[in-house]
């Protein structure tokens, strides 16, 4: 069944209570840190977490909260921005593949390879045929990571409503502590909302490795939702602390 983002709520379930969920999130964050320690010590598996979403959907806040208890030695994050001149001179996946996680590590992508079939498609820098070819390359790339390189791939779409996004963009103007985040271009991109939703739905519905749609209007539920998926995944990976072999002597 095809995903229609307009049919998925951006809010928490009505029976979820903020304080109770925040307490659960704290517990999960601690457990994520414990499992990340084992993952790093084991050094045989890795985790790639991809966060995609419209501006102000909470990618930075998610990273700060969900992975707060992880050891910096075994975790890293990278924010993909406009490609550099060198990156433009290579295939579109070149800059992505260079940042995939080492064995034992967690890598978090703040935006990702999907920018090359989102913003470029929205602004007509590539046509639909080129986007379809890139989608096939992205699928092959992710399958290579997950099925041939022992790298679990987790993809999250940060599902925020246009009304909430505009509130958060306005906060960047009104709150001096957030002025540094303000970019006039973010408002301009908001004018293309419907086209972005069409392109996101294409990416979500044509991915061989499934996406998780994270309702993001309320940060407390967004953090809980993503923390739960990350924790469940790490528990499924089930990393083990290496033990010394016992001597027969």
Layout of helices and strands, plus pairs?
Layout: H1 18-42, E1 46-53, H2 59-66, E2 75-79, H3 85-88, H4 94-97, E3 106-110, H5 119-122, H6 128-148, E4 151-159, H7 162-174, H8 184-190, H9 193-205, E5 211-215, H10 219-237
Parallel strand pairs: 1-3, 1-4, 2-3, 4-5
Structure description:
The termini are far apart. The protein has a single domain (29-181, 188-236), classed as P-loop containing nucleotide triphosphate hydrolases (Rossmann fold). The chain is globular. The chain has helices at 18-42, 59-66, 85-88, 94-97, 119-122, 128-148, 162-174, 184-190, 193-205, 219-237; strands at residues 46-53, 75-79, 106-110, 151-159, 211-215. By secondary structure, the protein is α/β, with parallel strands linked by helices. The protein has a five-stranded parallel beta sheet with strand order 2-3-1-4-5, sandwiched between helices.
């Amino acid at each position: 069944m095809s995903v229609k983002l307009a049919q998925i709520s951006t809010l928490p379930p009505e029976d979820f209570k903020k304080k109770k969920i925040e307490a659960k999130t704290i517990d999960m964050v601690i457990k994520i840190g414990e499992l990340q320690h084992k993952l790093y010590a084991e050094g045989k598996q890795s985790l790639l977490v991809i966060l995609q979403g419209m501006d102000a959907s909470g990618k930075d806040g998610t990273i700060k909260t969900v992975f707060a208890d992880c050891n910096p030695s075994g975790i890293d994050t990278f924010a993909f921005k406009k490609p550099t001149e060198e990156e433009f001179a290579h295939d579109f996946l070149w800059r992505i593949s260079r940042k995939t996680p080492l064995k034992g590590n967690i890598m978090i992508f703040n935006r990702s390879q999907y920018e090359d079939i989102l913003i470029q498609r929205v602004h007509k820098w590539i046509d639909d045929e080129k986007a379809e070819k890139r989608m096939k390359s992205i699928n092959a790339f992710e399958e290579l990571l997950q099925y041939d390189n022992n790298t679990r791939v987790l993809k999250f779409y940060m599902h925020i409503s246009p009304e909430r996004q505009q509130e958060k963009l306005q906060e960047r103007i009104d709150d001096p502590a957030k002025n540094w985040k303000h970019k006039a271009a973010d408002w301009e991109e908001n004018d293309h909302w419907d086209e972005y939703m069409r392109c996101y739905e294409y990416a979500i519905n044509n991915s061989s490795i499934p996406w998780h749609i994270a309702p993001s209007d309320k940060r407390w539920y967004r953090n809980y939702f993503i923390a739960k998926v990350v924790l469940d995944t790490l528990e499924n990976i089930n990393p083990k602390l290496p033990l010394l072999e016992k001597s027969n002597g």
